[in-house]
User: Fold these one by one.
Assistant:
Number 1:
Amino acid sequence: MDRKLLLIILDGVPHRNFRRLFGNLEGWVASGDACVWKHRAVLPSISASCYASIHTGVTPQEHGCTGNGNVFRLSHDDVFSQVRKAGGTTGAVAHSFWSEFFNRSPFDYVRDIEYDEPESKTINHGRFHSMTGYGHDNQMTPSDVDLFATLTNLCGRFDLDYGMLHTCTLDSMGHRFFHESAEMDKACFVMDEMLAPFIPRWRAMGYEVIVTADHGQDERGHHGGRHPLQQETALYYFGDADGPAEDDVIDQLQLAPTILSRLGAPLAETMKAEAFLR
C-alpha cells in the first residue's frame, strides 16, 4: 500500500467542544503539525447511521441504517473491504456495531469480542466491546487509554495498513451530563490528555492520523437532527497531504474515498464524494 492510516472516532463531540476544550489537538494545529476543518455528519446524525456512512461513503437513505435500533450486515463495499482488495491488513477497536456492519451480524459475544482472521475480506484484527447494560446511571464504556493502547498493540503486532478506533465515552457523558457542564468540560480534557501521547507514537510508526467524531450533540445531549450542534464536529489531520481551505466543511461522505485514496486502495463504485486530501 502507498501509506498507512489510522482513523480515531471520538463519538459525540460537537465542533465547539473540540475547538475550545482539546488543548493538545489545538496545540498541534497552532504549531503547524495538524490541520483542522469542520466536519458535517449525514442525516440522521445518529451514531449507527454515521458509522455506516463513514465507511461506505453513502447516505443512510442508501445503505439503509436508519438508527441504532437498525443494525445489520451492510451490503455496500466499505473502507475495510477495499483495503483488503488492495492486499492491505485492517484492524478495528470499537463498539460491536462496527463488527456487525462490516464483518458478521448478529454480534456473538464469545466469537466476535476478539478475533484475528488473516483471510477476512473486511476486518482482519478485531477487538470489540458491546456496552451491554448501558444507561444513564452506568455508561459501560471501557477506559479510553486501554482502547488507544489496544490499537497501538495491533499496529505493532500485525503491521496494520488501516486501523480504526471508536470510543463512546464522550457521547455517553454528553447524554448524561449535557455539554454545557463542568463534568463535560473535564471529560473532554481527560480524553485529550489520554489521546495525546499516542499521536506522536502513531506518527513515529509511520501512520497518518485522522481524529474526528461521528456527530455532535446539542445543549441537552441530543443528536439525530440537522441542528449545527448535532450535525457538526471537527476533523484533525496529521500527515503530509494537502487539504482544502481552512474554512471549508468536510462532508462525512468524503471520509471513505479520502482514506482509500491516501492508502492507494481502489474506491468502490458507490463512493461518489470527492477526496479532501491530496
Number 2:
Amino acid sequence: MPTGTPPTPPRTDTSRAQPARVYDWLLGGKDNYPVDEAVGRKLPPQAKDAARQNRAFMHRAAAWLADQGVDQFLDIGTGIPTEPNLHQIVQRVVPEARIVYVDNDPIVLRHAEAPLVSSPEGSTDYVQADVRDPAAILRHARDVLDFSRPVALSLIALLHFLPDDQDPQGIVRELVDALAPGSHLVLSHAASDLHADLARQVTEEYARAGIRLGFRTRAEVARFFDGLDLVEPGLVTAPEWFRDEPAPPAEDSGIYAGVARVPAGGES
C-alpha cells in the first residue's frame, strides 16, 4: 500500500515542454500536451527507439535484482507511470518489496497515486523532489526504505538532463554514499560518441524547448560507477545488457546502460 497520501500537486505548466511528458509521448503515452508532442515530433525517429530501449533495460535490470533478493528500490526520475512499472516487475518476484519513486514534474504526481499502488505485502511511495537536491530525496526515502540494508538506486535516462555545471557526478556520489554494501546503482545515459550527429540534433531540439542536455561519452558515463563493481556484461548499450534470460534482439542504440554493486568496505 502507499505509505502516505501525496500532497496536492502544484499547477502543471502546459506552456513549456517537460522531459517526463516528452518521454511519455515517445513511449506512445497519453499523458502529455501539444507542447511536448511538438518537441517529440522534431526529434529523429531513433528517439522513440531509445525510449523503448530504456524501458526494456529497466525491466530486465529490475527483474534480475529482484531475483537476487533485492527488496528495496529508489527510482529517481521515474517519469509518468507506464505499465508495467518498476514496482510491478519487482513485486512479482518479491511481493514485500518497498519502492520509492521520485520525480520533479507535477504531472507525474497527478498520475502517480493510482498506477503506483503496491502489492498488499509491500509498499510504494512517491516523492516530488529534484535530483539536484539529493539530501531531500534521501531524507524522504528513509521514511520508507531501510538504508542499513541494500537498496537499488535507479537512475534511468535521467543524468543526461544534468549538464556538467549542475555537478551530476557529485549528485550521484552523494546518493551512492548513502547506500549500504550490497546495494546497486542502475543507470542508463544517452551517448554523445555513438551517433554524434543524432546526439547533436536531439540536444538542439531540446534546447529550443528550453531543456538543456548533457550527453556524454562512454568514458564519462563510466565515471558514475567509480568505486563500484560493475555487474557483467559491464557498461554496454541498453539492448546489450541482460543477465539470466535470452538475449534481447540485437539493435543499434545510442544509450549506455549498466548495473554496479556497492562493495563492502575494503573490497576492490
Number 3:
Amino acid sequence: MPIIDIHIHLSDIDSFHRTAIDLSKVDYSAAGLKAEFDRNDVILGIGMGVSEQTKGAFPDSSSPNPMGLDLEEQVPSFLMECVGINPNRLDGKQAQDELDRIEARLQSPEVAGIKLYAGYYHHYVYDKIYTPVYELAAKYNLPVVIHTGDTYSMNGLLKYSHPLTVDELALQQRSVNFMICHLGDPWVMDAAEVVAKNPNVYADLSGLVVGDRPHFERFMNEPLFMDHFRRALVYSDHYEKMLFGTDWPLAPIDLYAEFVRRLVPEQHHEKVFYENAFSLFPRIGQRIAKL
C-alpha cells in the first residue's frame, strides 16, 4: 500500500539533529529520508517549514517569513512543503513585507499548505495577528496545519497549543481547512471533539512516540498508552479526517508506521495512510502525477 507522510521535518534545527543522533538513530539528511521512504513505500512527504537563526534558539523569534526546509539547498522532489509562519514578525513596519514574501512562496506548486507553531510562538491561533495568513490560505485554497499539544521545547507555553483553541478558529474561518497536529496530545479527547464538531478540521497522528525500537516496543506494549489514543479515535469516529505522519526525524518511519497500524483499525488503513491526504491537501494530486 502506498503511503503519504504528511508531517516530516528537514530543517537545520539543533534539537532535530540531537534527537536523530541520541534518540531515533536516523540519518537526518535528504538522502537518509529518501532511503526510509523507499523502504516503506512512502511516495510523498510534506515537510513542515521552520528555521532558527541561532543554534538552539527554536522557536526563534527572529526567523524571517516564510520559514522553509533549509537542511538542504532546495526542497527534494519527493517532498512538498508547509510554509512556516513566525507571527512575531507580522506586526509593525515589516509586517507587509513579511506577508508579501509568504504570498509569493504560496504560489509555488511544491507548497502544500501553511504551518503555525502554536505554543512555540505565544499567540492564540484565533488572534487577529494571523488573520492575513488565513486570508491567504483561503485565496490559494491551502490548508493551515497547526501544532497542538506538548511542545518540543521548554520555551513553549501550553495554553496556546491546546486543541480547543482550534474550535474557535474553525468557527471564525469556515472557508479554510485546518489540521490539528499530534491529535492534540495529551489532550486527545478534546482534539477528537474539535474534529468531530467542525467539518473543516482534520488531525494527524504524528509525533506521538519519539525514539528508537526499544522505546517504541515499551510504549506499544503498554495498554494504557495505546488506549489513550484509541479512545479518542473511536470517540471522534471520523477516520476519513485522520492522517498519517511521522514527525521524522523524531522516529524512524518503519516503526512509526507499525505503531499507527496498531492504533487504527485495519479497514481504515488506506484512508489514514494515503487517501485522506488528497482531501486535505489539494495540490498533492498534481505533485504525485509528476513523480
